[in-house]
Amino acid sequence: MHKIALIGAGRIGRIHAANVAAHPELQLAYVVDPVGTSAQDVAASYGAKVADLDGALGDASISGVIVASSTDTHLDFSLRAAQAGKAIFCEKPIDLDLARAEASASKFEAAKARIFLAFNRRFDPHFRSLKRKLDAGAVGKLETLHITSHDPSPPPPSYVAVSGGLFKDMAIHDFDMARWVLGEDPSEVFAAGACLVDPEIGKLGDIDTAKVILRTASGKLCVISNSRRSGYGYDQRIEAFGSAGALRAGNVTESTVEAWTEGGAQADQFQNFFLDRYAAAYKFEMAHFADMIARNAAPEIGYRDGVAALALATAAQASMQAGAPVAL
Amino acid sequence: MHKIALIGAGRIGRIHAANVAAHPELQLAYVVDPVGTSAQDVAASYGAKVADLDGALGDASISGVIVASSTDTHLDFSLRAAQAGKAIFCEKPIDLDLARAEASASKFEAAKARIFLAFNRRFDPHFRSLKRKLDAGAVGKLETLHITSHDPSPPPPSYVAVSGGLFKDMAIHDFDMARWVLGEDPSEVFAAGACLVDPEIGKLGDIDTAKVILRTASGKLCVISNSRRSGYGYDQRIEAFGSAGALRAGNVTESTVEAWTEGGAQADQFQNFFLDRYAAAYKFEMAHFADMIARNAAPEIGYRDGVAALALATAAQASMQAGAPVAL
Amino acid sequence: MHKIALIGAGRIGRIHAANVAAHPELQLAYVVDPVGTSAQDVAASYGAKVADLDGALGDASISGVIVASSTDTHLDFSLRAAQAGKAIFCEKPIDLDLARAEASASKFEAAKARIFLAFNRRFDPHFRSLKRKLDAGAVGKLETLHITSHDPSPPPPSYVAVSGGLFKDMAIHDFDMARWVLGEDPSEVFAAGACLVDPEIGKLGDIDTAKVILRTASGKLCVISNSRRSGYGYDQRIEAFGSAGALRAGNVTESTVEAWTEGGAQADQFQNFFLDRYAAAYKFEMAHFADMIARNAAPEIGYRDGVAALALATAAQASMQAGAPVAL
Amino acid sequence: MHKIALIGAGRIGRIHAANVAAHPELQLAYVVDPVGTSAQDVAASYGAKVADLDGALGDASISGVIVASSTDTHLDFSLRAAQAGKAIFCEKPIDLDLARAEASASKFEAAKARIFLAFNRRFDPHFRSLKRKLDAGAVGKLETLHITSHDPSPPPPSYVAVSGGLFKDMAIHDFDMARWVLGEDPSEVFAAGACLVDPEIGKLGDIDTAKVILRTASGKLCVISNSRRSGYGYDQRIEAFGSAGALRAGNVTESTVEAWTEGGAQADQFQNFFLDRYAAAYKFEMAHFADMIARNAAPEIGYRDGVAALALATAAQASMQAGAPVAL
User: Fold this and answer.
1) Digit-coded pLDDT (tens) for C253-262
2) CB–CB of B259 and D246 under 8 A?
3) pLDDT tens-digit readout, B29-65
4) What is the largest distance, in Å, between two alpha-carbon atoms of chain A?
5) pLDDT digits (tens, 9 = 90+) for C273-327
């Protein structure tokens, strides 16, 4: 059993703690959180101990560290874990500041960091199946890509204020998805944004709706659609258009039950809460982390990927402000 | 242009009149109906004349006769048209009395009748596509069959009283469908009926709900489900289970539009009115009749088919009353 | 933590072992299996000990016993566990012999047995959602029910020979489902069976295909369709027709991915292996067993339900042999 | 019966001729085509006469003129028909030259032209149903719109060479659709194009793939996706995202038949040929033209709409060439 330290005992940290406990090769050893009661609560559930960061990183028996603390600490905590020689599972985004993230790359390299940037969508069974079929040539050569990513309802303005904005906070998932499915880096981004959902978001200088076009060096085109509020649930879809057909991953419903009444056939609700929608993805992420630790597997998503997604988000922001495409 | 006489200017007669007029090879010449104003109305719309039965049958220029009058006249009018040498398009059922229908067979044969029993479902593009794929071996050898046939809402008791009962009036379509898709005649029928929808129907000695199992000599099994009221629209479906898969024909919606709201994805309503649902089938029926007249095509559904469907309906009625399977 | 003994370390026993281990309130303490290596293997995975039946039942710290051994032992082992005062989780069917199962009822009562008959379909989230909506009146009063239950491919003849036959081995799930969804006991059954899939099954005196009609005292009708081989995957569907609409639970696909090519839109495969299809159901079963142990919850499915399903299977067998409906 | 002259007896002209003949209020009187045999063929089928343009326009009994000749003649023939006082049904696009189309507007106004620009998609029952539900508030206030319009396979280079380019030839339908569904005019367009399908198209200076973002003055955003070759059929879809949900119009399949095999559920093919896919739309277009003639209905789509769609296509072309958004 490989011992794991969890940094951050909030909502997502608790998910990871449960998945560590359920994994046959991992054991939760420490929980670190500035809010002592949170740490205590999570630790008690899984037979772990509460510790501070130095204590956890200083224990040589700890193989891996999960960084699920607030975004502004991701970079520093990951680097300290790297320098302590631990394998790292870091929540997205790596940071909100592209220059800082780029500047830190050499430090991670110097530490020979084994860091996994946990973009959950890449581990979702539906998107993974699409990617596998695409790579197997089911629809020929990929030409264009549509990603739809609409949240059920907007976050509170207090969250928006510290979120880094729609592109870095929400669309960053889609930028990573685009890179992964396209199989190459976009070389140009054009972003159109609007505040159509909640005027409070606009007052904070942010947007709640966006349509983005990416273009790669080889000429592939990708459209991303984002909204902070769908009004119909969590909308997470991909359409990949190839030279011999198209692949689509649709939304997941709560059940297969349909009600047929005078109005027509009504399907069950979409799975709305992201922790439910991506529950399987979080488990597969942890299985991958176990592979990194137990079998020295290379991380599927590394530091450079985290920087590349942040670079796209930063360029999208710049494009929107300039009203013109931005080259990368 | 081949001249046609229409007998019966009611709801279904008007559909056939329009399809005659729209067909490039057919021309509506006479309309016969005991209600003079109905006949006049239909005749005026399509440049035809009102006539009585003798007048229409006596005109040697008439190639075909459509019998769309009340059920109790189907047999007599068809026979008279046969004896006048006309091609016949006869609405279902051929009669409500099996003995009488069987006894008349020799008279039709004697007249070398060219009679087409117009079971609309066999000409529906959806069911026809299923049958074509089945015959092409898309799912191997057919083993069992499920037919669902539920009406949107029950007919008035006054109609039920003269309808011949659920099996002869409504399920007869499904008995014909079963024979057609199975490709052989059932040798045994077990029918369970109930009055669950409208107690008035029960007071008339009829049922409004039935589940029937047919078995063929080669061992194929078929289930038919009937209801006089679905509560959700016109439910007309087939599932054909073969040795290498299954084929299904589903319900037809008004449009492809879905509404996604908090409750889930809502499809558009099913096409509810049988004249809409089977509009294409009626056109294809008329094209087939034109083939019979213009190119001497053999009728796809003949007198013997009409009798066979009636025999199944009669046996189902007997099975229900006896509470036991009935052999055919 | 409540201690559990598992009897039977085969395929299904291993599923239950994993679910016990994953449940926060349960702990696997003993594994009993005549094949020592199987028991040892499962015990080692979850920190349990190998024991014989007497040893497991004799340990007063054991709260619950899972009977997942071969069918012919279900009744005896469950009774011994009951007499030892343990809560019981018993795999279906309770027995293959109705008379014996009925005769044993008084012994279970005498032992004040707390026994849960684990029909997995009642715990499937899809069917459970259908039942919940039905009970909430989403489609009015239930009138008729269609259950489709087709296996992907037939079992080997060696299994068929000791299975008890299609009705007791396979359709028994659907008889229990019918009782649960209908909300009342069928009073009559008519079963038509055939051997269409594998002649070897017929040589063993069994069938591989069946269509069954059930009728309840209040007049509800239910159709069950069974096949040992679908050719297209595991087909597990329900259609419930009510006075104001219908509810349907459809098949579960491996993912939401569709491939659009020249042939049309191809959905992903159905989940084919029953252990995958009902993985969630097994977890919910274990959660229910934990409720029985930790909070004295009444079993959702009891001994009498196991007997009632067996009685229906036995009556269906008799109906098929007699070629007539059988009253219950 | 109102008499109609048809100009252009090619593929689309023949569709309109049949719909005139089938309409109870319209009668095809003249067919005009430079290819005499084509004109003769169509005229003979529907009891019309062959004429030249002057002859047709000079006959005072002609109420309406259908301009279905080549694109470069649309403007001139329509204007001449307007000056002759005829109601006009003009195929899209009004012209390929925006300046010329704008300059002609005053001439049409001077002639008090009653001209209907026949964009078929607005008359498609599926899109019309979406628009009706949207206007009825089914999903609240419209915020963003996605239009997917992919052809089954690319036209021959010889067609591309005279087509006016992807934006004016193909996407012009989608620009009109966008204006119609959005309910307001876009004020900015950004277009990204690529040649991914057929290098021959690129050699002609055209593109075969495009993604376009439109923005309206009120802040609504619209994405259009175009491809000259889908590889899976004719893809014609709309997603309209509102403040309380979304409406989607999907593709139309040949039938409702599904084949279930080991690979999963395969739906029937998409309706691939635009004359089939929009067959109903062409009929509804003609019914609207009859309303214009018989009941003086205002054209649902007028000259200004034709110019506005052309202006958007022209701006999209300019945006693509400039690599920057273009304001309108």
Assistant:
1) 999 999 999 9
2) yes
3) 999 998 878 899 999 888 899 999 999 999 999 999 9
4) 66
5) 899 999 999 999 999 999 999 999 999 999 999 999 999 999 999 999 999 999 9
* Closest listed residue to residue D251, CA positions, set B258, B235, B266, A150: B258
Name residue, tokens 């002759």. Answer: D84
Give the residue from chain B lying closest to D264, CA to CA: B245
Q: Does B245 reach chain C within 8 Å, measured CB to CB?
A: yes
Pick D246's closest partner by Cβ from A195, A232, A244. Answer: A232
ipTM: 0.95
Read off the pLDDT band of A35 (50, 70, 90). confident
**Spatial separation of the C-alpha atoms in residues C2 and C4, rounded to whole Å:** 7
pLDDT at position A70 is 93
User: pLDDT confidence of A21, banded at 50, 70, 90?
Assistant: confident
Which of D233, D253, D265 shows the shortest C-beta gap to C262? D233
Element (H, E) at A290: helix A279-295
Across the interface, whether the CB atoms of D196 and A220 are under 8 A apart is answered yes
Cβ of residue B233 closer than 8 Å to a chain A Cβ: yes
Please report, for residues B43, B119, B298, B314, the alpha-carbon distance to residue B303 in angstroms, rounded to integers and kept in the order given: 29, 12, 12, 16
* Six token digits for residue A114: 């084994």
Residue count (chain B)? 328
Any A CB within 8 A of C252 CB: yes
B contacts of D130 (beta carbons < 8 Å): 255, 257
Cα distance between residue B54 and residue B84, in whole Å: 10
- Contacting residues of B for C195, CB less than 8 Å apart: 219
Cβ atoms of B19 and B4 closer than 8 Å: no
Which chains does C contact via 3+ CB–CB distances below 8 A?
A: A, B, D
Length of chain C: 328
B210: chain C residues, CB-CB within 8 Å:
221
User: What pLDDT does residue B249 have?
Assistant: 98
User: CA-to-CA distance for B299 and B306, rounded, in angstroms?
Assistant: 12
Distance CA C266, CA C275 (A): 24
Q: Which residue in the block uniquely carries the two structure tokens 């709706």?
A: A209
- Report CB contact under 8 Å: D223, A223: yes
Least confident of B272-281, C218-227, D295-304: B272-281
Task: Give first-to-last CA distance, chain A, whole Å.
Answer: 44
Residue A244 has pLDDT above 90, yes or no: yes
Structure tokens at A11: 């909502």
**Tokens in use for D170?**
């193909």
As beta bridge partners, residue C222 has C145, C214
pLDDT of residue D37: 87
Amino acid at A155: P
User: Quick one: closest CA in A to C22, which residue?
Assistant: A22
- Residue C3, both tokens: 């201690």
B263 contact A CB<8A: yes
Closest CB to A258: pick one of C125, C248, C254: C248
B81 Cβ partners below 8 Å, 6+ apart?
B57, B65, B67, B88
How far, in Å, CA of D210 to CA of D165, rounded? 12
Bond from prior residue into A93 cis (ω within 30 degrees of 0)? yes
Amino acid at D288: H
Q: What is the pLDDT of residue C24?
A: 79
pLDDT mean over D205-210: 98
Instruction: Note whether D267 contacts C: Cβ–Cβ < 8 A.
Output: yes
Residue B122 DSSP one-character state: G
> Which of A138, A246, A250 comes nearest C256 by C-beta?
A250
CA distance C13 to C15: 5
Given the structure tokens 């009749």, which residue do they identify? B289
* Amino acid (one-letter) located at B2: H
d(CA C222, CA C242): 12
CB-CB neighbours of B145 under 10 Å: 24
Residues of B in contact with C194 (CB under 8 A): 215, 219-221
